[in-house]
Design a protein that fits this description.
Elements lengths: L2 E6 L1 E9 L2 E10 L3 E3 L1 H7 L2 E7 L4 E6 H6 L7
Antiparallel strand pairs: 1-5, 2-3, 3-4, 5-6
Length: 76
């Protein structure tokens, strides 16, 4: 039986200095240090549902908006 929980993506701004020049980049992360592509957050928003199956070690991340667009009820 998988554990199901809601999570909100967090925007992280990184800075790195290479040879005197500063580079700024941004990415999104969920709890458990799960990184999300920026395009995924731009398309679906920041609300996600995480399903963790401890028996198989499988983690499934689905956008919450995915359920509402299809008229389905989220499992939570």
């Amino acid at each position: 039986m998988p554990r199901i929980r809601e999570a909100k993506a967090r925007k992280v701004i990184g800075r790195k200095i290479v040879r005197g020049k500063e580079y700024v980049y941004e990415y999104y992360t969920l709890p458990l240090n799960l990184y999300l592509p920026k395009s995924l957050v731009e398309k679906w928003g920041t609300d996600f549902i995480i399903e963790i199956d401890e028996d198989t070690g499988l983690i499934v991340i689905r956008p919450k908006k995915h359920y509402t667009e299809r008229g389905l009820k989220p499992p939570i």
